[in-house]
Amino acid sequence: MPEHDYSRIFNFSAGPAVLPLPVLERIRDEIVTLPGVGMSILEISHRSKTFEAIIESAEARMRSLLGIPANYHVLFLQGGASLQFSMVPMNFLPKTAAADYILTGAWSEKAAAEARKVGTVNVPASTKSENFSRIPEQHELELDNKAAYAHYTSNNTIFGTEWKAEPEVGQVPLVCDASSDFLSRPVDISKHAVIYAGAQKNVGPSGVTIVIVRDDMLKRIPDNLPTMLDYRTHTKEKSLYNTPPTFGIYVIELVLEHLQSLGGLSAIQKHNEEKGALLYDFIDASGYYRGTAEKNSRSLMNVCFRLPSEDLESKFIKEATAASLDGLKGHRSVGGVRASIYNAFPKEGVVALIDFMSEFQKKNG
Ligand SMILES: *Cc1c(COP(=O)(O)O)cnc(C)c1O
Predict the structure, then answer these.
(1) Active-site residue 163, yes or no?
(2) For the chain, which has fewer Cβ within 10 Å, the N-terminal or C-terminal residue?
(3) 10 Å Cβ neighbour count for 12?
(4) What fold characterizes domain 27-261?
(5) Among protein residues, the one whose CA lies closest to atom 1 of ligand 1
């Protein structure tokens, strides 16, 4: 029988995605018994002192990393960002009111579609006719100053674009789907009413959704919502109304501790900018690969590019996979190549990809 191969490869998956190696090693070391507890994290009650300490620490670390003001709640929910597409309008969009949804990709379209089931949706701007290759400029936004809220997607995972600063929406509550760039850079929480993110892109395993919600928003919630879909249930019970995803929250706590040990979000941002610059500069200089996003909208998390033909793209992805560069296929709706290089993706992996791209171009250019 051959030995199992435990060596790691470079994982460019868009999500669930790469996690920090020190965190994985810590999980491995603690999986049979948490230090001093005598039981696995997989076995303990969510009402135990041990788990309470874990979820409290996760919240405290999140607050510290993002500078979350005291008038915001931090929740660890389930159902993914996709359930937030429904919960946000169910809680904050009265039937008779309208919400603004800025459309910058497939995820914001999905969010808007759920809101339309609840109330009226207006679209201040959409870059769909340009195949979502850019983020709209502030002056293009036709905002409604009476909107119940304005929703945007800070990083467009499929199209590889990212807002460089949040849209200015005046007094209207700003809601952000930050699923794919959460904790990749500092964010001004106070400009937002709600921020939500599925954990599996940048923060932890799938199964946990982080929601940050400003306290005054809770007053807007109607009284007839199903208990589990009402944010007040979860703010009141501190995410422990029912059994939360305990393992996922434990992993998130470890990831947050790791981010703090690296120097916090400014340090992480610098690291991400270095990785992004390496790859984009190489693409731009190659005369062979072509970035699909406009330069000033480029995402530091998901780098999307094309080759001269679809046949070459298939060949590229096949040979890259064989060379232990995994998960590079672009989303089925756009094709091409997508290199997701989240926080935990190492710079050596970007260098390995560039070496591979350079060789591929020599052989096929
Ligand atoms: C992945 C993703 C989603 C969907 O997340 P789920 O947790 O699978 O529901 C939503 N929005 C963005 C920006 C994403 O990247």
Answers:
(1) no
(2) N
(3) 25
(4) Aspartate Aminotransferase; domain 2 (3.40.640)
(5) 179
